Amino acid sequence: MHILITGGAGFIGSNFVKYMLSKYPDYQFLNVDLLTYAGNLENLKDVKEKANYTFIKADICDKAAMTKLVREHSIDVIINFAAESHVDRSITNPGAFVQTNIVGTQVLLDIAKEQNITKYLQISTDEVYGTLGSEGYFTEETPLQPNSPYSSSKAGADLLVRAYYETYGLNVNITRCSNNYGPLQFPEKLIPLMISNALENKPLPVYGDGKNVRDWLHVEDHCSAIDLVLHKGDAGEVYNVGGHNERTNIEIVETIVEALGASKELITFVEDRLGHDRRYAIDPEKLTKKLGWKPKYTFETGIKETIQWYLENREWWERIKSGDYMNYYQQQYAGK
Ligand code: NAD
Ligand code: TDX
C-alpha cells in the first residue's frame, strides 16, 4: 500500500505514522502536513530517515499541490488527520476550522475520486454527536448535533465523506473517537496542560464546575482501531472508537495532582467554556464485535505512562510553551 497520511506531524498523526512504520515495513508512507502551530517535526525525528517514509509540507486545501503529490507518490489510500483540532480556538476563530476541516476534506475527496484512490479514511470525533445527559452512549446511529464551531466543521466534513460514498461510490470510512491522550499531545489540551502546569507550579484552570465528562482513549489504542478499519472496514461505514473510560475533568486533574505530588491549591475554577458539552461517552460495540478491536490500556495504566512521558520529555513541551503558544495561552486565559 502507498498511504498518504495528512496531519501526520500533529499529536495523533505522528503517533499513527510511528505505529504504522513499525508494523508495516513494506508499505510506503507519505506524510503531508502544513506545520501549523500544532504540527511539530520533532515528533518524527526517530523515523525521518526511514526509506519507506517521506514528509512534505503542504496545505490539504491546495488542490494542485495535493494532486501532484498523490500522483508522484502513486498513492492508493488517503487517511485524513489534518484539522484544526482545539475547541477553544474554534470559539475565537471559526474561519480557520471551516477552511481546513471542511474545505480541506472536500479537496481531498475530489482528489480521491479523480485519482482512483481505493480507500479514503476520515478521522472524525465523537463531538459531532453533540452532548449527552447523565445516561446513554453515542452509537453510529446517534444523530449529528454538533455544538461548537470545531465539532460543526468536523460534522460538515463527515457529511461530505458520506456524500462521496452515496453519490460517487468512493470507498470511504469514518472513525469517530473519544478524547485521546498520550505522548506528544500539544499542551493546550486538558491532560498535557495540567501535567505541564503542575510541573511548573502554575494554576490548573478547570472550566465551570469541573463535572463535565470525557471518555478517554489512549492514542495507541486509537491507532490500532484505525489500522483495523483501514484493513477490514466495510465500504461507507462509520466506526466509533472508545474504551469506556468516562471521567469528570476534576477527577482527571486530581489524579494528575496526586501522581505528581503537586499542591491541590493549584486547582483553580475558571469561567466555563462557551457551549461546553456536558458529557461524551462512546458505545464501541460495532468496532469490538465486527472488527475485533480490543484496547490495550486501561485509563489507570495509560495515564501513569503518559505522566511519566511528560516527566521524561520536559524539553519537548517546554519548547512549545515558551514559543508562539504563549501568545495564544495568555489571550485564552486573560481575566480568568
Ligand atoms: P493536532 O492539532 O495535534 O494535529 C493536527 C495536524 O494537522 C497538525 O500537525 C497541523 O499542522 C495539521 N494541519 C492543520 N491544518 C492543515 C492543513 N490545512 N493542511 C495540512 N495539515 C494541516 O490534532 P490531533 O489531536 O492529532 O487530531 C488529529 C485528528 O483527530 C483531527 O482530525 C481531530 O479532529 C481528530 N480527533 C482528535 C481527538 C483528540 O482527542 N485529540 C479526538 C477525536 C478526533
Ligand atoms: O484548561 C482547560 N480546562 C478545562 O477544564 C482545558 C483546555 C479544558 N478543560 C475541559 C474542557 C473539556 O471538558 O477539559 C475537557 C477536555 O478539553 P480539551 O482537552 O480541550 O478537549 P475537548 O474539548 O473535549 O476536545 C478533544 O476531544 C475531542 C479534542 O481537542 C478534539 O480535537 C476531539 O475531537
TrEMBL record:
<dbReference type="InterPro" id="IPR036291">
    <property type="entry name" value="NAD(P)-bd_dom_sf"/>
</dbReference>
<keyword id="KW-0520">NAD</keyword>
<dbReference type="Pfam" id="PF16363">
    <property type="entry name" value="GDP_Man_Dehyd"/>
</dbReference>
<dbReference type="InterPro" id="IPR016040">
    <property type="entry name" value="NAD(P)-bd_dom"/>
</dbReference>
<feature type="domain" description="NAD(P)-binding">
    <location>
        <begin position="4"/>
        <end position="306"/>
    </location>
</feature>
<dbReference type="InterPro" id="IPR005888">
    <property type="entry name" value="dTDP_Gluc_deHydtase"/>
</dbReference>
<dbReference type="GO" id="GO:0008460">
    <property type="term" value="F:dTDP-glucose 4,6-dehydratase activity"/>
</dbReference>
<keyword id="KW-0456">Lyase</keyword>
<comment type="similarity">
    <text>Belongs to the NAD(P)-dependent epimerase/dehydratase family. dTDP-glucose dehydratase subfamily.</text>
</comment>
<dbReference type="GO" id="GO:0009225">
    <property type="term" value="P:nucleotide-sugar metabolic process"/>
</dbReference>
<protein>
    <recommendedName>
        <fullName>dTDP-glucose 4,6-dehydratase</fullName>
        <ecNumber>4.2.1.46</ecNumber>
    </recommendedName>
</protein>
